[in-house]
Amino acid sequence: MNAYENGCRDFVVEHRVTLPNDAITYLVADSRRALSVMSRSLFQFTPKEEKNRRFDRLCDVQNRISLEIHQGYVGKTVRVLCDGRDKDMLTARTEGGRLVRLPGPDSLIGQFINARITGCTTWSLVGEVSD
What we know:
The protein is an alpha+beta fold and 131 residues long. It has two helices and five strands. The chain is 21% helix and 27% strand.
């Protein structure tokens, strides 16, 4: 029996999730694809304004979690793979897929290096090449 047949037209689920340090989270507010689980779910009965409020609240929580995890990297040295350049910084990835931005020459692209993490943002780490 689905929620509509059960008489429920709206709901809120409070759920605490424990994620490993290198977990990556994708947030989806809604699905417009026909026959998708989301399109048939209880969310179709929730007003758009409420969906947006809930999504914003979830993003705020995820941003705090991400920043807290990234702050735990500051001062550590991690092995990264340099995979490209974004403007004036090299981009690299940790073994867990975390983005690290650091200065350095293009000759490092495609190589594993050690990077000392010197700072962070919500969505990336900032580092420098370490020996």
